[in-house]
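Customer escalation, tier 2.

The customer says the design service returned an amino acid string that "doesn't look like it belongs to this structure." They asked us to rerun it and document both sides in this ticket. The original structure tokens are below, unchanged.
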């Protein structure tokens, strides 16, 4: 692998076109009953060639093992690739340790027309709940960022259960947003990026009717996940609010 633009940081459950990631997923699931919530750095580039062959004339294969039970044959890789992987991993770890973790771009596809529909739904819901949509302080680009990068194109309450659960609700890399809407998490705060959550229609209606405190009480784990996500977004945007 050689293409630096194909590097991705995502949950290992979302890793694709990566034989090592597939093997690790298998071990985690079958040996440890652990299916997700493990960040992984991988490349979505298709392998250009296989492992280099090992010639028996070279001697005992075990003499070439780096660690016991590690494969002997060398993976052909461009010399710059390990360094790029290392720098990307270091950036992820350092930002995590400073309390301002990265929000990696997720692996899925969504049409611009769906983003436009979600933007219109947001304004419609603001009209219904607050009597006007003048308080919507986001534009189409910001809505796209929220849907793609923050809420990964699915209901936040589903996303809170883990990437595997979210993946099962969708088909392949595509996301279906037909029954989703952006709503204010805290209705007492402005309609800005830092206060918008993507949820299913029925969740949006219940949340608008019951209020934030009732949602926190009824769904504590999901509420904690959403608020951590919004906090990470505020840090990412450099907001002090």
């Amino acid at each position: 692998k050689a293409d630096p633009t194909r590097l991705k940081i995502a949950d290992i459950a979302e890793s694709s076109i990566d034989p090592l990631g597939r093997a690790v997923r298998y071990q985690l699931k079958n040996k440890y009953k652990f299916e997700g919530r493990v960040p992984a750095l991988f490349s979505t580039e298709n392998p250009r060639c296989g492992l280099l062959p090992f010639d028996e004339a070279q001697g005992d294969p075990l003499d070439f093992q780096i660690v016991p039970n590690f494969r002997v044959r060398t993976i052909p890789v461009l010399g710059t690739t390990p360094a790029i992987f290392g720098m990307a991993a270091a950036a992820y770890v350092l930002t995590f340790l400073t309390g301002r973790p990265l929000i990696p771009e997720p692996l899925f596809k969504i049409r611009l027309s769906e983003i436009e529909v979600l933007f219109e739904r947001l304004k419609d819901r603001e009209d219904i709940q607050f009597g006007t949509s003048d308080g919507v302080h986001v534009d189409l680009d910001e809505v796209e960022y929220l849907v793609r990068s923050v809420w990964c194109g699915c209901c936040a309450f589903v996303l809170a259960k883990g990437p595997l659960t979210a993946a099962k609700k969708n088909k392949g890399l595509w996301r279906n947003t037909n029954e989703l809407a952006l709503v204010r998490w805290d209705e007492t705060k402005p309609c800005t990026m830092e206060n918008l959550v993507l949820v299913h229609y029925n969740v949006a209606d219940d949340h608008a009717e019951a209020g934030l405190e009732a949602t926190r009480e009824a769904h504590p784990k999901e509420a904690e996940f959403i608020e951590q996500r919004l906090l990470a977004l505020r840090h990412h945007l450099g907001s002090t609010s």
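Tier 2 assessment: The sequence is consistent with the input. The longest strand covers residues 7-11. Residues 112-130 form the longest helix (19 residues). Sent an explanation to the customer and offered a walkthrough call.
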